[in-house]
Amino acid sequence: MQHYTKEDLKFCRELPKTELHAHLNGSLRDATIRELATKRQLDPSLTKLIEKGDRTLSECFKLFDIIHRITTDHDTITRITSEAVEDFAADNVRYLELRTTPKTRSEHGMTKRSYTEAVLQGMQDAQGKQSASLGHSITVRLLLSIDRREDTAAAFETVQLAAELQSQGVVGIDLSGNPTLGQWSTWEPALQEARRKGLKITLHAAEVYNPGETEAMLQFRPDRLGHMCCLDEHLEELHYSTGIPVELCLSSNIITESVASYTEHHFHPFYNAGHPVILCTDDSGVFSTSLSKEFAIAAQAFQLSHVQLWQLSEAAIDHTFLREEEKQELRREFKSIRLNLQTEKTL
Ligand SMILES: CNc1ncnc2c1ncn2[C@@H]1O[C@H](COP(=O)(O)O)[C@@H](O)[C@H]1O
Ligand SMILES: [Zn+2]
């Protein structure tokens, strides 16, 4: 069943957008997954599991383990990065903050640093290609993710790496992974260090109901939060009082059954309360979506007008991890597109 109209999708495709919550290994193309699974002689039953289809949150994490088994070498990491950037650019995403968990794979001579450098290479490859094939450029920055399975030392290693690579496009740190694993006190010291090193921070929060952790995360005052699905009254009050922008991934939350339906999604109360919200894809490959589709779903589910969709898209620029002058440039780019579209319409 489609949760959006063709007209809305067409409009949302024309809308310039920013994607601020996209996991690299969750954003693989179908064809690439199939090709890599065959090349690595992955058991066909596992390939079937990778093929799209609704899956619960816990099944998602089994799926990521499988995807990680077919994206093990540097060239593949560079390739899937380049393809992901190309696909977001083709969806008229003008600014992309890609996030990924640096991985050590000694059998492939891979360290967290060489993994991250392979990702940065893929970002460069794609940005060069973009302007040629699409006639417009895409600006890409990288967040390094701490996985909830990692210990304190590993978290510090990722933060140190991110700090060293800031000049190459790393702008922040993400905390993600299976929300039922680990505890906040393991990673908080490294996140404090990240802040000291001038890195921005976004946290997957309240994906499952965990009031103690969610309260601690809100008190930490990250620069952004992701999901925020499971809040009780007290947490909701605290959340609103912080004004921290929230990355909302509609399809991801519905497909993983974190939220029961689009119309019941917390986008609505957050948006109506004037709380800063950013529409995102989370894992466009795993959930077979695009940012245009997420905007079109929101238009339908929450009766948003085209003006409101424009405002939503432009407001997201304020919440990027770009420097102020870069935000200004992006605002100018969006404004000139809006003016062109308005002119075309009147022709
Ligand atoms: C669906 N909701 C989610 N909740 C929490 N973490 C998620 C996620 N979707 C993806 N990830 C995180 O992103 C990793 C895959 O990309 P990278 O290997 O880092 O590029 C997953 O292993 C998980 O840690
Ligand atoms: Zn996520």
Automatic annotation (TrEMBL):
Classification via InterPro entries: A_deaminase_dom, Ado/ade_deaminase, Metal_Hydrolase
Entry keyword Zinc: yes
Cofactor(s) demanded: Zn(2+)
Organism domain of life: Eukaryota
Keywords noted in UniProt: Hydrolase, Metal-binding, Nucleotide metabolism, Zinc
Residue ranges of every copy of the Adenosine deaminase domain listed in the record: 16-333
Catalysed reactions, semicolon-separated: N(6)-methyl-AMP + H2O + H(+) = IMP + methylamine
Gene3D superfamilies: Metal-dependent hydrolases
CDD domains cross-referenced by the UniProt entry: ADA_AMPD (cd00443)
Family that this chain belongs to: Belongs to the metallo-dependent hydrolases superfamily. Adenosine and AMP deaminases family.
Protein name, UniProt field: Adenosine deaminase domain-containing protein
Protein source organism: Coccomyxa subellipsoidea
